[in-house]
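Collaborator request, handled under Task 6.
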Amino acid sequence: MSTQRIPSLKLLIGFEAAARLGHFSRAADELCLSQSAISHQISDLEKQLGQPLFHRVGRGVELTVAGEVLQRSVRQSIDMLQNGLSSIATYLDPGLVSIVCPAALLHGWLQPKLDLLQAALPNLCLVLSTDETARFIDEVDVDIAIGDRPIQEASLLERPFLQDEWITVSSATLAQQLAQQPREQHHLHTGLLCLEAMLTHDRTAGLFREQLGLFRKQAIYDDPRLLLDAVLRGRGIACMPRLLASDDLEQGRLILLTDYPRLDGQGWWISKVAGQPRAEIVQQVFDWLLVQAGH
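Structure tokens returned to the collaborator:
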């Protein structure tokens, strides 16, 4: 079966303007063309399609049924093109820097610092992604990658970045309630919120069998951000990464529970292109992040 040839974009744009405005001369004015040029474009388009698209009404025009069908398709196509061009314009912003960072680290550690970063670099436009599979810097438009291990590419500069730890926390309200009870009776007054990965991780699984073994498991989450939200709502205590909880600890929304387990956690690495990056602002963001991490 043969495929019908798609009319030129020039003809479709002329048609869309005439259909939207209901008048050839107004379409011509909008497109900076003569009315004769618009008339010829519509005539050429009707010849290619083999059917009329307009019929005259007074001094204006109205769409035929075929014209209405075509108008919907052309409008959708033009909208899609305009959206694509807007996206391209965004990615041409000279202040744009793209960072890939694990969701928990972005949510708990980096996001609360972004106002400081924006104040330091007012022209910055950040693209922030939690897609940890996007680890090929400059191949998928990634300027800086933060991950749990180095990428180990010769073309990259990679540095140890942050060291996490597992800590046990509760909401401020729950912490006040538990402070009124002996430590050995805490499990009678609240439950335990868990991150699923911690239940099977070699370093943390023992915590839930031993030090936290008396607590009833209230809920198990596969997303650290949901775990954090549940703790903030006072649903129970939880052992979680300190970097995930760091802003809430600083603001007093979470309380670090003393006499509860603490373990060394994940180490994080930061990577960028070795040498001069594609733009000076990429280097500035990279250096700022290192300073924030205490380097």
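The cover message to the collaborator said: "The radius of gyration is 30 Å. The mean pLDDT is 89. Please let us know whether this matches your experimental observations."
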